[in-house]
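Below: protein 1.
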Amino acid sequence: MVEGQDGLNWDRWRAIAQIAEEVGFAGLYRSDHFTNPVGPYKDSLECWISLAYLATNTKRLDFGPLVSPISFRHPAMLVRQAAAIADLSGGRLQFAIGAGWQDREHTNYSYHLGSLQERMLRFREAVQIIAHLLHTDAPLDFDGQHYHMHEAVLLPRPTHRVPLVIGGAGRQVTLPLVARYADEWNSGPRQPEDFAETSAFLDGLVEKAGRPKHAVRRSMMIFLRTGRDQTDLDRRLAAKPVPQGMRNLFVGTHAELKERLNQLESVGVQRAILNWFDDFDDVDGMAELGRAVVK
């Protein structure tokens, strides 16, 4: 996974996609932002256009946004984009959505973010609309606070299932939405014991929603700084120090990362998504990482 707002352009995206597929990564993911919260502006390749490129220029990678804020795109348009790209790729899109959170990009580009309460209500409505349009043929009438739909349909109907991915761990809004609507829960970085406890809480919500626990896949985003050995790791940290205040960052060698992945797998993490923090041009480093951890 790469942070698309941190310098991603077409040359880099093509190279990253090629190495991800060649080395054997299960998927390739990216963020959907205009810019970083602070600091200089960098190249920021538009997310959904870059996913359309993966649909036709890769053959086996799963891919998707982590995550697309519904504050940027109306859910009716977002779901149309997702369904089209899912079919174009033969069903490889993982459709991850979020409420939006970054003040800077919303202010700079005239998108309304709103209070936390407003964002959660808007997100809840968007999830209901998206889930209905993806999975139900019947026209949708919806009268919410933020969205109003009248005989809305999604045509052509997607010929492949479009897995809906929801990230976060809020127990009042996010996890109940996951339990009712999502195909995958994407956890932020957390210790194995913390993940196990939150996953067990989600199990209870999924059962209350009348779904089997296995209906919701469990994945985790891992922010990391890693190297093939301690010397390589030290070199990378010296070249690009860890920003102050960055929490839940895994720092270790490839062997230590492999051990952590085994621990996470033992508590139910089914897919680990490795957030590449180093230089996007270092595709050799990405390849080394893949060869070290991919089973």
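Below: protein 2.
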Amino acid sequence: MGLVPTMGYLHAGHASLVARAAAECDTVLTTVFVNPLQFAAGEDLATYPRDPEGDALTVEAAGGTMMFLPSDVEMYPAGRDQVFTTVAVSELSARWEGATRPEHFAGVCTVVAKLFNLVGECRAYFGEKDFQQLAIIDRMVSDLSFPVDVVGCPIVREPDGLAMSSRNVRLSSDERAVAPVLYRALQAGAAAIRSGTADAAAAHQIMMKEVASEPSVSVDYLEVVNAATLEPVSKVSGPVRLIGAVTLGAVRLLDNLPTHPLETQ
């Protein structure tokens, strides 16, 4: 069984997960559920884009076998405010997205754990765009002995480099033209590291300078981290992950890029 958990409004990135699962598994179940537990008050739960009919066409075209589109009541019979049992991965959730959205990852882990319990033994496919989420789910599976093989899949990008996301549809035309600056910043940081910059602070300054070229973009974080622990590094001596989150208008954009010094290739 291949499992592809999503929040719907599927795009080519999601389709790549379904296609990967279809190539490796006998049966592929795609779930579509906009999980209220991972949205804090004032976040975009009510306006999160939804298109179940389009999602079904996307899944079918990508080779998916089945879909599961539960209601809130099916997943949380007593209501979201009456969910007393949650799952949290403490250390990996503390920084980055967890610092900005403290309720988010407990909501993600709780709903994913419920899906794993419903499905049972499977291979579960997640995109690397939400890299911290991928690391957290992988650790949850290990710590709680779920019979699940977590498979991370590469980011799918628009031709200009913007990482595909369901929230991109909320960008205005002017904002959409600006949005690839985050990817350019990560590329600039990665290029510096590959060319011999070992000082993570110097790489950080290069990334910040690139984003500063677009004054409408507000930086939440741009960091060089250990890919396993998600902790920031001061000196780059091996493979690392560059991670970033920025806000553009009403939309929060996430992206990341792996890199390493040339001598570690």
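Strands lie at 2-6, 28-32, 66-68, 122-127, 148-153, 217-225, 240-248, 251-259.
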